[in-house]
Amino acid sequence: MEKKRRMVGIWDVKHMFESSIIIFFIIGALATTAVYYVNSDEQDTSLPVTPSVNVYESLNGCDLFSGKWVYDNESYPLYKEAQCPYLPGEFSCGQYGRTDFKYQQWRWQPNGCNLPRFDAKVILRRLRGKRIIFVGDSVNRNQWLSMVCMLQSVIPLGLKKMQKVANVSLFTFKAFEYNVSIDFYWAPLLVESNADHPSKHKRIDRVINIQSIEKHAKNWVDADILVFNSYLWWGTPTLKILYGSFVDSEKYNIVSNHDGYKMVLEKWSNWLATHIDHKRTQSYFMSMTATHKRGIDWGMQGDGNCLNETEPVMKDNFWESGSDLKMMRILESTLDKLKARGVNVQLVNITQLTQFRKDGHPSIHRMFYSTLKAKQLSNPKRYADCTHWCLPGVPDTWNELILAYILQRLK
Ligand SMILES: *[C@@H]1O[C@H](CO)[C@@H](O)[C@H](O)[C@H]1NC(C)=O
Ligand SMILES: *[C@@H]1O[C@H](CO)[C@@H](O)[C@H](O)[C@H]1NC(C)=O
Ligand SMILES: *[C@@H]1O[C@H](CO)[C@@H](O)[C@H](O)[C@H]1NC(C)=O
Ligand SMILES: *[C@@H]1O[C@H](CO)[C@@H](O)[C@H](O)[C@H]1NC(C)=O
Ligand SMILES: *[C@@H]1O[C@H](CO)[C@@H](O)[C@H](O)[C@H]1NC(C)=O
């Protein structure tokens, strides 16, 4: 237990709260049996319909990202918080005092199709022999742990293992029976930066080395599936770009966060286009996720935030003011250019669906690394985490969506 905690516990954006922002069960004898959700406005029930060989193929052409949240306490949550031994304190909201659980019971309903019902065994069988690596920041780590929790419940003790790889920012979950590896690589800004240590990365100023991606990226080449993100750490208005060695470089430019993001994504694109075997490896990029820091966005009075929120926003196209659409456009244009070069990186557009979920964040129900000050305790809004997501919860849906893509493409 102690050991586990060390591996997945003591690290993260402990500081983002201080300063502004730093920061399954299918009834059926066969694997091919499927259960669809019923797309219905009045009913939240799910009924089994015709089994098919690859239920995921039926999703081809459907826009999975336009839709709505539907309350479904029959199918959700996909697992129980207490039954996932790998959940760290940052995401274990129930353990840290959250007593409302409705936030775990929402299903994402795309407008044009139905997502197949999640079945961990079916998915593990399909993933046999594959290695997935999530690369990015703490929100991506949040998603990685969601994926591990979604899949690990059907694997008996002794046939699975979580560990940190020595000297590398790499964490790996292995399911031995299936020969599946689900890994996380900490690289919040993708290229080398002063935020690279997986646990010691308190930095107010952001320094990156634009020329250095290989140090991280060499650890990604062996993946069958790559899932990137990079958003949170671009929240400062400017950053320092170094030219030359990270340790003693005196040459640097100060650039805006948007320019920096664009430059880094270009570097990342060039690396991806030249170092990855795209016949073997599927690549994905997760779009930015909403942070619910301004209650005024959803009609709250005063300076409230996600604290005490227990229901999603039910307004069409709701958009919270903290989401930087310009960053999204830079990402989209980068992925378009890659596509023109013959490299297909699927954008997993979860931005809108996260917008609605002001109820999904840990707020004060999580483990905090630094001791909270009296001033904070007297005003819990000040330290509420409205960036990350409780598990089980919203990231489980991101994984259902990404699995829909992965399984459509896996032969
Ligand atoms: C789901 O919610 C409905 C009404 O909210 C309740 O009557 C029912 O008992 C709940 N079912 C489960 C499995 O919790
Ligand atoms: C496990 O999967 C890897 C690819 O990730 C493959 O190289 C290896 O041969 C597989 N091992 C077994 C025992 O199937
Ligand atoms: C990890 O780093 C330490 C010190 O830098 C070194 O002594 C050790 O051999 C390294 N271990 C591995 C597995 O590379
Ligand atoms: C949040 O809920 C708690 C418990 O119901 C209450 O004491 C507190 O005042 C609420 N805080 C805000 C900011 O609404
Ligand atoms: C992703 O979603 C956002 C918000 O709904 C939208 O503005 C954007 O155009 C979408 N991007 C793509 C490539 O579908």
TrEMBL record:
Molecular-function GO term, any one: O-acetyltransferase activity
Keywords carried by this UniProt record: Membrane, Signal-anchor, Transmembrane, Transmembrane helix
Membrane topology term: Single-pass membrane protein
Domain of life, per lineage: Eukaryota
Residues covered by the Trichome birefringence-like N-terminal domain: 61-114
Chain ranges of the Trichome birefringence-like C-terminal domain: 115-404
Regions crossing the membrane: 21-38
Localization per Swiss-Prot or TrEMBL: Membrane
GO cellular component: Golgi apparatus; membrane
Record-linked Pfam families: PC-Esterase (PF13839), PMR5N (PF14416)
Family assignment from sequence similarity: Belongs to the PC-esterase family. TBL subfamily.
PANTHER family xrefs: PMR5 DOMAIN, PC-ESTERASE, PROTEIN TRICHOME BIREFRINGENCE-LIKE 34 (PTHR32285:SF303), PROTEIN TRICHOME BIREFRINGENCE-LIKE 9-RELATED (PTHR32285)
Protein name: PMR5 domain, PC-Esterase, protein trichome birefringence-like 34
UniProt source species: Helianthus annuus (Common sunflower)
Top-level taxonomy: Eukaryota, Viridiplantae, Streptophyta, Embryophyta, Tracheophyta
